[in-house]
Amino acid sequence: MVYPREMSEIFCKTCHKPKAPYICGLCSEHTCKACTQFLLEEFSALRTKLPDTLKHANYCAPCFDEHVAAPLADYEEKMEKAKDIIIYSKEQSKLTRFIKRKVDPYKVEGCEDEQEALMKMSFYAVEDGYNCLIDIQCQTKKQIAGSHKKTLYSATAVPVTIEPGSIRGHMDPP
Predict the structure, then answer these.
(1) Based on the structure, what is the number of domains in the chain?
(2) What gap in Å lies between CA 86 and CA 172, rounded to an integer?
(3) Does residue 171 register a pLDDT over 60?
(4) CA atoms of 50 and 41, how far apart (whole Å)
(5) Residue 172 falls within a domain, yes or no?
(6) Tens digits of residue pLDDT in 25-78
(7) In a domain, 96, yes or no
(8) How do residues 135-161 score in pLDDT, each as one tens digit?
(9) Do both 16 and 49 map to the same domain?
(10) Are 17 and 76 found together in one domain?
(11) Angle between helix 114-127 and helix 69-83 axes, rounded to 10 deg
(12) Which residues fall within 8 angstroms of residue 75, CB to CB, at 6 or more apart?
């Protein structure tokens, strides 16, 4: 089979090598695998407000540097803050009984495990400017598809802002 001439002459925008199968999501230029910047799916999975420029999977180097690098660094910073968020379960409500619950609780569903559910809610809390999740409740739901069984987790929590030493019985990690 003979390919048309223009099909066989697709060159990379960045390094000008032939065989550039990837297309930048922003500028629609062809790039080779070595020059393509791939955006991980987990980046868009946790974001609640995702700009149009970050909804693509592939970027050329100039577009990545101009439009994606700064939001990606911001995302990584928020992920680090989410790992350090203060967490109190519903069973610890005796410690948090004097904290006002002014905001509607967060609810996540369809998570693979309890840690993923907590991480999603922690990320949402950091995005909204909170540093603590209280009244956390996790539920499991078994999903059966033929002979395949799967457990999905859902969770709810109330986001609040507290001073780390303000709750009696709260101990900071060493």
Answers:
(1) 2
(2) 9
(3) no
(4) 12
(5) no
(6) 899 999 998 999 988 776 666 666 677 778 888 999 999 999 988 888 888 898
(7) yes
(8) 999 999 998 888 889 999 999 999 999
(9) yes
(10) yes
(11) 120
(12) 43, 46, 47
Contacts of 50 (CB under 8 A, 6+ apart): 44
Q: What is the CATH number of the domain that holds 130?
A: 3.30.110.70
Rama region for 112: left / alpha / beta (φ>0; ψ in -120 to 50; rest)? alpha
User: What is the DSSP code string of the chain?
Assistant: -PPPHHHH--B-TTT--B---EE-TTT--EE-TTTPEEPPHHHHHH-SS--GGGS-SEE-HHHIIIIIHHHHHHHHHHHHHHHT-EEEEGGGTTTSTTS---SPPEEEEEESSHHHHHHHHHHHHHHTT--EEEEEEEEEEEEEETTEEEEEEEEEEEEE---TTSSTT-----
The tokens describing 41, both together, are: 């799916």
User: Which whole-number Å values give the CA distances from 153 to 48, 106, 117, in the listed order?
Assistant: 19, 14, 7
* Residues sharing a CB contact under 8 Å with residue 11, sequence separation 6 or more, in sequence order: 17, 18, 20, 30
